[in-house]
Amino acid sequence: MTSEFEFIDQLRRKFGKPNKRIVTGIGDDGAVIAQSSRKDMVVSADMLVEDIDFRLGWISPRELGHKTLAVSLSDIAAMGATPLWSIASIGIPQPLWEGDFLKEFYEGWAKLAAKHHLKLVGGDISKTPDKVVVDSTVGGEVRKGRAVSRGGARPGDSIFVTGELGGAAGGLKLLEAGAERTGAAAKLIKRHLMPEPRTEIGTVLGELQIPTAMIDISDGLSSDLAHICSESGVGARIHKNKFPVDKNLIALNFPDGDELALNGGEDFELLFTVPRYLRKDLRNKLAKLMVTEIGEITEGGKIELVNSEETQELKPRGYKHF
Amino acid sequence: MTSEFEFIDQLRRKFGKPNKRIVTGIGDDGAVIAQSSRKDMVVSADMLVEDIDFRLGWISPRELGHKTLAVSLSDIAAMGATPLWSIASIGIPQPLWEGDFLKEFYEGWAKLAAKHHLKLVGGDISKTPDKVVVDSTVGGEVRKGRAVSRGGARPGDSIFVTGELGGAAGGLKLLEAGAERTGAAAKLIKRHLMPEPRTEIGTVLGELQIPTAMIDISDGLSSDLAHICSESGVGARIHKNKFPVDKNLIALNFPDGDELALNGGEDFELLFTVPRYLRKDLRNKLAKLMVTEIGEITEGGKIELVNSEETQELKPRGYKHF
Asked: Which ipTM did the prediction report?
């Protein structure tokens, strides 16, 4: 059966040809639209569905508002752009309308929006038969021609990732297990429920023009690295012992921390590639922003995972909707 | 209980203050964002939910793709803007993924997009537990400062509407009654399932700068006129005998054609106001594009409906989600 990614590829071939105004259409974290002689606009949308992407028993309306916006902010960051405006569409069943659900949802949204200096400018409120569904659209700006696509990685480039990996997937496991929200467990659960988009570092990377390719880790490192490789026509080699595994996973002695860092989704860290000779420059310029070098881009299309004992071919095992 | 419109008003007061870049935020057909020294961007989003806004037994995937885009194109037209790009997010249950539903949905979307010279640039595909949900976002452009809001109507202005009214609501009634899709009935059903957004006339009106206020008729004339009046701080008087009732309703002897024209939703015609002295100019410039004068803006906040026998106060009785 066609995968979600194959279907999107078909859409792109059929309808997604760029033109004079559409710089990048279907198939990246965000679309890039020529805006003025100095700026391009970047726009991205994400839908979250109750009982597929979230459970109301686990996430509060405020957290859901935060997360919905965070997911799209992460896409804007992955293009190297700075967010400017957002639109929230939400469908809820009648009983939730009668309570404070919507008010709190928008408060969660607005709080994160204020933190990242962007505005809620509109949306749509619909009734649904029984489930909650949310869709967010965020628009941002980037200097003309500086949006970072998935398609520019070159053999020899170093592969970097921001922050720590696997925490959001660990948090989900803890929620599923009914763990108490204390200590390291609470921090992991918060990573799952209220991800922090990498807006600042995304903007800086876009300005620096150092990355050759970038994506946000929404499906999982193995899948998102595969997207960069396939778009760039290259392979990659990453080293398991270099993964910045979430320290709260380690604190809780999670048995499969490496596995969660590799295939767990929704960390919303940025994965990007940098020409080898610019690695030092990158470190100097990012100063305190945490990034970790985890491998390098190779020729050919193969993606390899280097363990201490062996090197194996890495298949994308991240999240799939279908 | 708070109505949908009251809630949106609360959101606007709380989060929707315009700033240097956000010209118009929450509370109009689209948000207006300053883009360059010559252009503003207009963006709008709409969510449609299965069994609330459409039934899969009545609408084909292609028609749904068309309608989802049409609804947002209509908002862009109501701002006097020209559409440029679109984003489609869709959630579908597993069984529909396995068939041609998505392929046909996007074909319907793309066909209408091509007709109006805009591009599909992205979106999101999600799984849902059982219902289909779609959310569309469309971005357009307008000359700087020329976006037409709901808030500029002045006492004495003439009220105009494009095309014919009540047809979409008549089509819905025919679908509910299980009518055969032939002759005038087929045309009414098509108005409901595949509305034609008034992109051309919206663009022309924005360029001419003749309208003082504009909205699209999505909820119904009585409700949408009330939005213009409340945003503009004015009243209105409209004349029942001037309504351009859909000729297919008349052909089928619909007993409540006037009522459908007044309160039926989803016609996606444009309702706009024009200074009295510019009425002739408008007619000359619109040439063959059909518009009908149905009344005038008055002082105070009251909206009146003039029948042959009497004048009565008009309450908004259009569509409400909540």
From this structure: 0.92
